[in-house]
């Protein structure tokens, strides 16, 4: 069982609340279990591929990652708290993961997208969702941004712009993802931008 010291930063600090501390330990254990399930799925996919079984390896690994993020998001106390406080967010797959072509040894590229501001509790969600993947030896690259920040960065850096071309909604607030894609594609298709490329 995973042990976490009091005030470790993963759970909200509630002085004298032993039951809340135990609840947080169980949540982090659950996230680690979900990452372990994902690891076993990845290992089985590799074995099947090496054995010559006809299976779509890249799509199946993408699906396994999607299922991990669905589960973490659905069970996250932090995601629920952020949503209730008026700070909903979307999880967005980028790059090869966004194209549903997640290679075994490629980074899992993820955007955690907020509408107008990134609240401090976003870090807690990152700890719930990303840290277990790192512990399970997945390479995860992620950004936590607002829609305006994401648009601005896309047109300052081509490496970011190209990953956004493959953006795919995973879960969370779909309206934030839709607004982002609409603004991104509108700006991308403006004549003045196309002239400068």
**Number of helical segments with 4 or more residues:** 10
Largest sheet, in brief, is: 4 strands, mixed
- Give the strand order, joined by hyphens, for the main sheet: 3-2-1-4
Write down the overall geometry: globular
> How big is the Rg?
18 Å
> Would you identify the regions where 5 or more consecutive residues have pLDDT less than 50?
1-31
Query: Would you tell me the structural class of the helices and strands?
Result: alpha+beta
Element string (H = helix, E = strand): HHHEHEHHEHHEHH
What is the helical fraction, as a range of percent? 55-70%
State the separation between the terminal residues, measured CA to CA: 54 Å
What's the mean pLDDT score?
80
Strand content: 5-15%
Number of strands: 4
Quick structural gist:
The chain has ten helices and four strands.
Q: What is the topological layout?
A:
Layout: H1 18-50, H2 57-75, H3 77-84, E1 89-93, H4 95-98, E2 108-114, H5 122-129, H6 131-135, E3 140-146, H7 147-154, H8 158-164, E4 168-172, H9 174-188, H10 191-195
Parallel strand pairs: 2-3
Antiparallel strand pairs: 1-2, 1-4
Tags for this model:
single chain, 197 residues, alpha+beta, 4-stranded mixed sheet, 4 strands, disordered N terminus
Report what the structure shows.
The chain has ten helices and four strands; from the N terminus they run H-H-H-E-H-E-H-H-E-H-H-E-H-H. With 197 residues, the chain is α+β, with helices and mostly antiparallel strands. The longest helix is centred in the N-terminal third of the chain and has 33 residues, at 18-50.
């Amino acid at each position: 069982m995973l042990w976490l010291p009091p005030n470790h930063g993963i759970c909200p600090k509630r002085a004298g609340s032993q039951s809340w501390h135990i609840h947080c330990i169980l949540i982090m254990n659950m996230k680690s279990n979900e990452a372990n399930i994902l690891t076993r799925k990845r290992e089985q996919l590799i074995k099947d591929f090496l054995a010559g079984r006809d299976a779509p390896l890249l799509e199946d690994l993408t699906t396994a990652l999607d299922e991990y993020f669905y589960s973490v998001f659905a069970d996250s106390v932090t995601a629920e708290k952020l949503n209730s406080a008026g700070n909903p967010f979307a999880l967005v797959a980028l790059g090869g993961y966004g194209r549903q072509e997640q290679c075994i040894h490629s980074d899992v590229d993820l955007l955690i997208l907020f509408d107008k501001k990134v609240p401090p509790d976003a870090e807690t969600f990152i700890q719930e969702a990303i840290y277990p993947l790192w512990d399970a030896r997945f390479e995860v690259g992620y950004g936590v941004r607002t829609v305006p920040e994401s648009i601005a960065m896309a047109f300052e850096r081509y490496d970011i712009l190209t990953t956004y071309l493959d953006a795919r909604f995973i879960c969370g607030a779909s309206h934030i993802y839709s607004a982002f894609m609409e603004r991104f594609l509108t700006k991308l298709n403006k004549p003045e931008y196309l002239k400068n490329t």
